[in-house]
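ingest -> validate -> predict -> emit
validate: passed (alphabet ok, no gaps, 305 aa)
predict: started
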Amino acid sequence: MVSDATTEAVEGFARHLRSERGRSEHTTRAYLGDVRSLLGFLDEQCGVSELADVTLRDLRSWLAHLADSGAARATIARRSAAARTFLGWATRTGRIPSDPSVRLAAPKRQRHLPGVLKQAEASALLDVAAVAADDEDPMHLRDRAALELLYASGIRVGELAALDVDDLDLAGGVVRVMGKGAKERTVPFGGPARDALDRWLRHGRPQVVTAQSGPAVFLGRRGRRADPRQVRTAVHRLLAHVPDAPDVGPHGLRHSTATHLLEGGADLRLVQEMLGHASLATTQIYTHVSVDRLKQSYRQAHPRA
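emit:
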């Protein structure tokens, strides 16, 4: 059975993630789930209930067990990273004398090229949203504004749902976003997104706003702050009307924004700043997408390809 000291360490790690590292509740739950998976294995399979007794061999046995159970390489890599973060924190805070995960190696993640829309497909999607909004239904106006802003800015769907009215500067064409790790950034957007947002704020939002709406930009039909799932549903529903387009969802719009910016000659570091990536390496995957699409176009169009 896991000791009281180990249980206290997990609770302290959760507080550390939320308050000191500024991790979201979703990320914190994911970390804690991975840590509890480790601790459960150590207790049941290795007879280890105290953190100070954990060895590198125990950790390797855990990863081998995950692999034998059919866990994907990405899952194993994520759980390994969570274990290293937890045990490193436990060492720094004096809960264990040394970190047994220092030499723990995990399988490298497979780098999958993200699914993206072609520029024509993205335009067609936004045209479909615009036509749907012609009926002045507030939810259709909302969906059009949400999709225009997602594609124009490349922000995450969770960031979009968290926006307040004061975060938007329609005249300046910028939006203030609170990203991962409570890091704030300012992201530009263009005329079509500004027009769609203006129409939503002047004609759509007033139809559903209630005393419980607060400052939220995007609302549901009952006046509460819109949930990211509502935006995902809208993207999938409208994209179904675009022939042959991949069913990518809101994150696919983010991928598409980055890819189309780079295809248009945008600087990689500016795209990194716009997307809120902590590492340039994360942004660089979009250069591979652009090159891959360039090669595909070359093979289709060049007579000696």
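The beta strands are 168-169, 174-178, 184-188.
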